Amino acid sequence: AQKITQTQPGMFVQEKEAVTLDCTYDTSDQSYGLFWYKQPSSGEMIFLIYQGSYDEQNATEGRYSLNFQKARKSANLVISASQLGDSAMYFCAMREGRSGSSNTGKLIFGQGTTLQVKP
Amino acid sequence: EAGVVQSPRYKIIEKKQPVAFWCNPISGHNTLYWYLQNLGQGPELLIRYENEEAVDDSQLPKDRFSAERLKGVDSTLKIQPAELGDSAVYLCASSLAFGNEQFFGPGTRLTVL
Q1: How far is CA B92 from CA A19, A23, B43, B53, in A?
Q2: How many other CB atoms sit within 10 Å of the CB of residue B30?
Q3: Size of interface A-B (CB pairs under 8 A)
C-alpha cells in the first residue's frame, strides 16, 4: 500500500537558519510524484515544491529544496534562511502514476510536521 | 487569477442536520477534488471529478455523503444527516486535467454539536 511517513510531529528553528523536514514514502509504482505543501493557521494548503520520480536533479523553488534520495525512498524538504512567516504545518504528499494514466490525481498525504520559527 | 473558492468558511450545526459545502475551482481546471482533513492529520481524498464525471469516489461514505458537479465547473458536497464524527475541515482542490499541481481552497471547517 502507498504510504507517506513524516516522523517529526513538531520542529523548532531559529530565524535565518536552515531546517530539514523529513519525509519517507512507500510505493511499488515506478512512476510517481512527490509534493510538499504548507498549511498556515488560516487553513489553505499552499503548494511549495514538486519532484518527479524520474527527475535526476533535486527540485528547488526559491528557499525551498527537495532532497530526493530514491534508493532510500526519502524526499526531505529543506527550507533555507527561515522566516517567521514559515511557521506552519508542512505536509509531504505522493501522487502515483504518470500524467495521462487513470491513477493520475490522487494525493496521499503524511501526518504533517508543525514548524515553529523562533525570532 | 482567482484561486479555488469555497463557502462557507465555517459552519456549526447540530447532529442529524444536513449541511452543504460549495466549491468553485480555478477557471479552466477540469479536475476537482474534495478532501477531508481531521484535526492534526493530512487530508484524505473523498471524491475526484474529471469534468462532471466522478472518477474516484471509493472513499466517499455514500450512506450520508453525496456530491455533484453538474456543469463540470463548481461542485457541492452534502452530508445528510451529519454526525459528531463529521467535524473536520473539508478541502476542495482543482488541477488541470493532467497537471502536477493541485491548488487548494481555504476549506470549510465543520463543527457538529
Answers
A1: 30, 24, 10, 16
A2: 17
A3: 58
Instruction: Specify the pLDDT at position A15.
Output: 97
**Hey, what amino acid is at B57?**
D
Classify burial at B84, counting beta carbons within 10 Å of its beta carbon; exposed 0-12, middle 13-18, buried 19 or more. Answer: exposed
- The percent of residues above 90 in pLDDT, for chain B, comes to 74
**Interface membership of B92 toward A (CB under 8 Å):** no
Give pLDDT, residue A98: 53
The number of helix segments (H) and strand segments (E) in chain B equals: 0, 11
- Cβ contacts (< 8 Å) between B108 and chain A: which residues? none
pLDDT digits (tens, 9 = 90+) for B35-72: 999 998 999 999 999 889 898 888 899 999 999 998 88
Residues of B in Cβ contact (< 8 Å) with A99: 98-100
Phi, psi values for residue B85, rounded to 5°: -70, -5
* Residue A49 touches partner B, C-beta closer than 8 Å: no
The cell numbers describing A92, all together, are 509531504
B94 Cβ under 8 Å from any chain A Cβ: no
DSSP code at position A71: T
Residue B2, chain A, CB below 8 Å: the answer is no
Which residues on neighbouring strands pair with residue B42, listed in sequence order? none
Are B48 and A45 an interchain contact pair (Cβ–Cβ within 8 Å)? no
Percentage of chain A beyond pLDDT 70 is 92
pLDDT digits (tens, 9 = 90+) for A16-47: 999 999 999 999 888 889 999 999 998 889 99
